[in-house]
Amino acid sequence: MILGVDGFMYPNEVELQWSILIVLYPYITGLVAGAFILASLERVFKVEAVRPTYRLALLTALAFLLVAPLPLQLHLGHPERSFEMYLTPHTSSAMAMFGFVYLWYLTVVLLLEIWLEWRADIVRLSETTSGLQRVIYKALTLGSTNVSPTARIVDDKVGYAVTVIGIPSAFLLHGYVGFIFGSIKANPWWSTPLMPIVFLFSAMVSGIAAVLLLYAVTTSMRGKKIDMQCLDTIAKYLFYTFIIDFTLEMLDLIHRTYESDESFRSLDFMVHTRLWGSQVILQIVLGTLVPLGLLVAVNHSAITEKKRCVMYLTACSLTLIGIFAMRWNVVIGGQLFSKSFLGYTSYKMDFVTREGLLPAVALMLLPFVIFVVLVKLLPPWTEEVAHGATRTGA
Amino acid sequence: MDLNRRDLIQIGGKLLVLASVGATLGQITGAEEPSDAYNMADHWWGMLIDIDFCIGCGNCVRACSNENGVPKGYFRTWVERYEVEENQLPRVDSPDGAMEGFPPSRRSDLKRFFVPKLCNHCVDSPCVQVCPVGATFVSPDGVVLVDETYCLGCRYCVQACPYGCRYLHPKKETVDKCTLCYHRITQGLTTACCENCPTGARQLVDFKNPQDPVHEFLRKHKVQVLKPYMATEAKVYYSDLDGSVR
To answer: Which of A76, A147, A366, B104 is found 20 to 30 A from B196 (Cα to Cα)?
Structure first.
């Protein structure tokens, strides 16, 4: 009898191979994709109400994207060989494409869009600051100092084109992460064609919730008034995407239950035992139904603006917990049952080891540190930007 | 023709000199030696396991562990004991992979048999498909191998294997698995597990060798592979495999 094991596991299955770090990977990339898609609402779909969050969303996406490969690097047995994925990628492997998708998204989409968006500010700051700051801003101009109205129109047009390319790229980034799991036919918990689309919508949900929270918190910290119209609009989009996401997940659940293939007994047992807390309580009830309920309840006429704001913040916080629980249930849950469907193992999370809780917490805090640095470097607050430095086309 | 001992020694001496000269000339001129070197294209390896013959002694597990330096708690091969009651899920155990065999069964009224497991050296290996750098591959003679100098240790292949045959080597931090004793079979030997099986339940087979008894066996017996619905074209065939085996 092995501790933490019920029934029969193949002997090599007892130990989980993918730890909490691999839970962070889809969670972080999801936040990136979601934040970017929210930014594109304003840029491409001209949803003016969410404009105060546009720049914030871009910086959020960048802060998380810079951290996205780190959990994978820490997880690898030989991180020094990871560059081989670029040099000799195995074309039949879904994972091999990560490096290329990541680089494409980072350089072609996000960095380019951010540079174009902030170029006028960077040029202005390179002229108004001094010392090291001046050097940094000079370098960031990349030698392009023309901020004439004509040049800004070109920036705007290129920026628009990049955002248009960015939307399918964001879909690709996270849909692809879903495909990494969904294409593993050996694991019935993962193997579903719905996985990429479920990952995509849950990414949008988490990214939108994260930007709403960041906007509300940073605005309050700066002593400014929160733009409630902006919050209401973001919450509306959060609600719509959440409904689609929840519908897809329930469709998957109903489909599995109705089909009841040979894995069903095993998976059903798991949901009622080992995953009860993280799936049913955290993900479905607290992380989905309660936020959805709050997002519906805000429409009641008796709810004051302040209460509405608190309800949004509560809903978004719970949503982020719920989406994290969803990633946990996919990654960890998918390894808790035997591929023989005859037994179950347990995940024993370490604390200080390379794949333990402490590095995971540090990795989750790191994007916020980067975010603070980015905000200092590239101020996103549109009300503080000098006239003429904002986009001309908007 | 009558040959005495003296003639034999003389002829032998001359042949020896001729052979030495020939070999030296061959070396000087660069002529190739007649070779019995291993040619990968001539082989296509797999295994045949006769469930009825397996007695669950664990000899194969111990032999594999010793031969390949398998770390404790991990298995390139293991043996499962199935105890099947009518209309019930099978009860399966494999204490320490059957390294020390099995304790006596608590019930005698059940259908009971042993199932040795190892890498199935699939033709369409999911593990090979998913490896991001191609560190795991199918050799030209049909053996699924891992290049440990190239493996990243991402463990995607471990997730992709439907049979639970792979693990991360705790010291090397690369993925490890059954190599079908590649270092032995390319020298004309059989695998350590087959060599040490007291009942011949495990037989290394070469599907490209027309003289291999496997062809005769496959003609006369009903065989099955594990999880055929996975469509991996596994090359480990089981004779008399019960439907309850996972």
So the answer is: B104
Query: At residue B32, does pLDDT exceed 50?
Result: no
Per residue in A197-223, pLDDT (tens digit) is 999 999 999 999 999 999 999 999 999
Cα torsion A299, A302, A306, A310: sign: negative
What global pTM score does this model have? Answer: 0.90
Q: Closest to B162 (Cβ–Cβ): which among A78, A85, A186? A: A186
Contact A356, A349 (CB under 8 A): yes
List the alpha helices (DSSP H) in chain B: 5-29, 59-68, 126-130, 156-160, 182-185, 192-195, 214-220
* Cβ atoms of A64 and A24 closer than 8 Å: no
- Using a CB-CB distance cutoff of 8 angstroms, which residues of chain B are in contact with residue A186? 126, 159-162, 230
Coil/strand/helix, residue A207: helix
Best to test chain A binding among B130, B232, B244 (most A CBs inside 10 Å): B130
Asked if B130 has any chain A CB less than 8 Å from its own CB, the reply is yes
Torsion of CA A259, A262, A263, A269, to 10 degrees: 90
Strands A6-7 and A343-344, how do they pair? Answer: antiparallel
Fold of A21-264+350-384: Formate dehydrogenase/DMSO reductase fold (1.20.1630)
Has residue B104 been placed in a domain?
yes
Closest-CA residue to A254 (of A182, A205, A175, A194): A194
